[in-house]
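Quick one: structure for this chain?
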Amino acid sequence: MKIDFIKNIFFPILFSFLTFFTSCTKEKTETSVKQDLLIDLEKLENKIVLFKKLAENEKDSKKIQDYFKETRVLYKKTEWAVEYFVPETARFINGPALDELEVEENKFLPPNGFQVIEEFVFPEYEIKNKTDLVREIAIMRANIAQVKQHLDAISIEEKHIIDAARFEVYRILALGITGFDSPIAQESINEVAPALVSIENLVLKTCKNNSKESIDLKAEFKNTISNSISYCSKNNVFNTFDRATFIKNYLNVISKIIFDLQKQNNIANVNKNSAINPNAATLFEKNAFSVNAFIPSAEYAYSEDKVALGNQLFYDTTISKDQKRSCATCHIPEKAFTDGRKTNLSLDGFDLPRNTPTLTYAGLQNALFWDLRQIDLEKQSVDVVQNEQEMHGSFSQIIPLINKDKKYKALFEKAFPKKNKIEEWQLQNAIASYIRSLNDFDSRFDLYMRGESNLSDEEKLGFNLFAGKAKCATCHFIPLFNGTVPPNYSKTEQEVIGTPKNKTAKEISPDLGKYNQFKMDQLKNAFKTPSIRNAAKTAPYMHNGVFTTLEEVVDFYNKGGGKGLGYEVDNQTLPFDELKLNKKEEAALVAFMKTLTDKKYR
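Got it. Here's what it folds into:
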């Protein structure tokens, strides 16, 4: 009888109570975080209203600048949610002051938000910009109101809170401290504190496990946040801020603690196809990135068996028309999968117009080729194989060989076990999978960030310049160092930098780049921002191979690109002011870039 009572009455009641208690705890967490967020958004909106009134009546530059800074700080407290839950609107609140191009519709949307306003009020506010300033502030208020309405309507679960907190740490690391979103005012270091305070509140309110290990982690977390804020406060000069130390000793530690607290509290990962592996503690782990975020669809998923087949196909000349050229003919492994030439050679022996880019880390991009004309590696492989000047072949002509060759057939059957018939898309996928395997993440820089190696003082200076004064990291984003925009990595950017026709020319290259596909003036001479990982092994540089050394590349950027050199580049996206790097700083930049060489190429 007693057993029946426990089994049939007590346990069900206990289970119901625990279920109710757990759901109440989760609901309480969500309500608390969401209420705080909506309150912060309300404060931000009110601040923007006052900012608009100030702009309508005030002429004093410093007062307007100070109010702008205060408004930005309030935004930074909400950035974790705005960027995570409403990224489309976030682009027009704190995105680059560049037109948002919708190339398929052949139209563009003018930029709005903080960075546009920043250009009106820094370095000095001029009263002639009053009308434009007031208009931009009004647009920003409307966007914030839209965000507030959206966030008020959605449910925010614990897993989303933790995921958003981790992404905000990555955003601070890859965009915040580099000056990406404060390019003129350079207030990036001062804006770290409000973002970190928000992260602290989010994590501590969400992680309620009170085991000794969890309590110790929370104490370490609070202490690290406090020390991080103190470090920024004491070292808040943008050009001299030690980003190498801050990332390694502070932001990476914060990332690891959030990761450990998530596990301690049994908070699930968000089920999404993210470029960042949720099971990596920091952005610098060897497994931090997932190539499956860049595939066309699920059947193209990466596997080692596909890599093995792709490796065989990569070196097979049967794919080309004359059966003399393979992928490896132009992408030589010893040269970090480039060819060492200024530009590639056609099948007829003539110089092609563009340089052969490295295939290392090519799988972590949303667009391929210098002109970004293909969106994934599968389409890229078809483009090259069928190109009359490059291979002039087809995947269909190698299928009979695979069917006859026992070794080849076995590789195919392992790569595609449920497919009896060999199809061209599978061969494209295999080669693409092989290219996706060329991400080693074992350079000296990677090892340094993982605490497994050291960098010299010159190399650290080079990184700090790269991510600060030299502004390199605002286009070559840490840690991929390509143009795929963190932390969502859903877009790969192009830039117009005014690359010269040759070293002695006083004009830019006549190659119009992406403009050849989409006839938009903003895209004239626009080219993909490539990865500079393994750059020490991939000379010459630029789409036309015009520069033979990294020193020449640094000198070009130091002078402000094509426009800085006096060329006509009305649409240049690269800042054209001189960077004013001295010779020691230029040498340090080159020294840093050499630390990005993977082990197998050293």
